[in-house]
Amino acid sequence: MKKPIQPTVKDKRSKEWRIYRAAMKEYEAYEKLKNIEVESEEVKPDEVIVKKGLGDRIADFTKAIGIKPCEKCKERQALANTLRVKLINLPDENMMEFFSNYSMSDRLEANEVEYIRLSYKHVFGIDQSICFHCGSAYKIVTRMVKQLKKVVRESRS
After folding, report:
1. What stretches in the chain show pLDDT beneath 50?
2. How far is CA 25 from each of CA 20, 152, 157, rounded to the nearest angstrom?
3. What DSSP string describes 128-145?
4. pTM of the model
């Protein structure tokens, strides 16, 4: 993958610049993934295993937009599939109580969303940003709650 060429248009709000920024994000993600070295290690009980690996998800996406995989792509796919999501911290008692009894409603309160986001960051070490201006906020929060509920169920058993 080649590095995108910076547009010559001076207005950074133009369509050319938006395309360039999107292409740069994709290029940077590609470069990070290309240079990842993964050590093979035994799966530990405190790890949450993703059923469909990151490489499979990337391959599905690229296939959907019409990019055919080469041999290097398949190697990176296999490498990315070996990655595991590790828990940074186990949920504390307050989190376990909250998520074991929690059910999503149609309307989310701001303090509820913030607690879910902070809990997710505490357990997985990922600061998931939530954009309330687009329609994806509810989906993101729902996914975070499902993952946290799964961790709570597994840590109780």
Report:
1. 40, 43, 45, 49-50
2. 9, 34, 41
3. ----SSSTTHHHHHHHHH
4. 0.44
CA distance linking residue 97 with residue 150, whole number of Å: 13
Q: Give Cα 130 to chain centroid, integer Å.
A: 12
Residue type, 62: T
Helices (H) and strands (E) in the chain, counts: 6, 2
86: left (phi over 0), alpha (psi -120 to 50) or beta: beta
In the chain, what are the domain boundaries?
Answer: 36-86, 93-156
Residues 141, 113 contacting (CB under 8 angstroms)? yes
48 three-state secondary structure: strand
Q: Can you say whether residue 4 is alpha, beta or left, with left for phi > 0 and alpha for psi between -120 and 50 degrees?
A: beta
